[in-house]
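Write out this protein's structure.
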Amino acid sequence: MKVVLERRNYPRARLAEPIKMRLVINSHSGYILEIQNDSLNAIGRDISESGIQALLDTSLKPGTILKVVFKLDPSEAKSQEAYVDVIWARKGTGGFRFLVMDEVTRKRIRGLVDNAGQSAL
């Protein structure tokens, strides 16, 4: 029997929903950040309180900062927003760490993960 050690600090829940991503770059002055108008489309794979994994059509470099917009429940009209940085990227997929997110969204993610853990038992 093969034993797999879990390296993650936070449990995850499945999230197969569309994600809009927009690059965040330094302004010309270098003192503020600007959100780009063009968006990248992705599909979520899983989510935790610390980050999100997504399928991508494009490659991103680790350290890239993005604003992400996603829904935890596709039946809701309101989307969640957060800022992330790219932790790792491979062809067609990437891992993103949450940098900034409101507390309501964080609690909703925690509830989603808790519910996923309960249903797995």
